[in-house]
Design brief:
Elements (H helix, E strand, L loop, with lengths): L8 H11 L5 E5 L4 E4 L4 H4 L3 H4 L4 H8 L15 H8 L3 E8 L5 E14 L2 E11 L1
Antiparallel strand pairs: 1-2, 1-5, 3-4, 4-5
Length: 131
């Protein structure tokens, strides 16, 4: 029986890749739990991974409070990470988020599903940058 607490090799490699990038990047597992974001993402997220910890999708998404430039809450069906998680396809959007430190940031996000095999969904990769 496989230990569900261990991470798949593909997630380990994705984390290693992200940790070597100067581009902000985050990873979730197959349930949408935030499992990693790199140092480059800390300024936008408003804290370190050690401070944030692993967070379920609903919690980290709610904390970020993604919204349009007109301050309207961005519906789930327009959030790139939600699309990648639920529809298993890539998505891109520009919106405003609130970091863990309370600071607002206008960002662009591209998220895509991560597969080990065509039928083995592992999680989501989201790459983002400030406007």
């Amino acid at each position: 029986m496989e230990d569900r607490s261990s991470k798949h090799l593909v997630l380990i490699l994705a984390r290693e890749f992200a940790s070597n990038l100067a581009t902000p990047m985050m990873l979730t597992d197959e349930e949408g739990t935030l499992i990693f974001f790199n140092e480059a993402a800390e300024q936008i997220i408003g804290g370190t991974l050690a401070e944030a910890g692993e967070l379920p999708f609903a919690e980290w998404s709610a904390r970020a409070a993604p919204r349009t430039a007109d301050s309207e809450l961005l519906p789930l069906e327009r959030r790139p990470a939600a699309i990648a998680l639920h529809e298993r396809r890539a998505a891109h959007e520009r919106f405003v988020v609130t970091g863990l430190d309370g600071a607002d940031h206008e960002i662009s996000v591209t998220a895509f599903p991560l597969f080990a095999h065509a039928d083995e969904f592992l999680g989501v990769v989201a790459i983002f940058w400030g406007a």
